[in-house]
User: Fold Probable membrane transporter protein from Thiomonas delicata.
Amino acid sequence: MVIDLPFPWVTLLSATLIIALAYTIYGLTGFGSSITAVPLLTHFLPLRSVVPMMLIFDLGAGIVLGLRNRSAVARDELLRIIPFMVAGMLVGVTLLVRAPQRPLLVTLGCFILAYAAWNLAFRAPQRSISVAWAAPLALLGGLFTALFGTGGPIYVAYLARRLPDVRALRATISTLIFFSGLARLVLFTSVGLYKQPHVLQLALALLPVVMGGLYLGSHLSRKLPAHRIVQAVWGILIAGGTSLIWHNL
Assistant:
């Protein structure tokens, strides 16, 4: 089947390379697809097209990789987070549909730089935090999840200080992110983001690139040192966040 897409070849080639990079990183590290791809893709495509397209890829990747260790999920933490996360998503979808794109992209660039700087600067052992942080962080995470697909680091910041068991942490995060993807799919469909011309066609055309990136990343993860991979991810995030702010200011 041939998919006819009305985009310049530079846009299609750039999108292909960006998606391949983002999902190779996902396969290597288990995170980082949207926070890597979204700031780069918005140089070539509208934010309102990029975010729903990335959601399709993330759901596909989640189905392929599966929800592992489901028995270890901390259900009490999910019950604290999900209601506030959904409330934040409602605000985020409203902003995504109605707010001007340029301020949103500057906000995304600042968020990415702050996230990268935090991870590079603070390496001290993390202490446990109160459940009172669940509501504000879940609201903020839901907001950034709906706006940019980048709320994952905020959920991790909370859960990593609540769940000392690594297996429980990974299972809870993967379940939460997969649920947030389903919730966003409902919200994006209800506000008509998937009615935009060529969003679904472009996602379908790039889906094999996603799967190829996942395979390559999983293969490389057994051969490359983990600390080098993480350093490369931070470098990409800093470059992407800086370019967003520069381009939109």
Observations:
- DSSP finds ten helices and no strands in the chain.
- The first helix runs from residue 9 to 29.
- The two ends are 41 Å apart (CA to CA).
- The chain has one domain: 9-248.
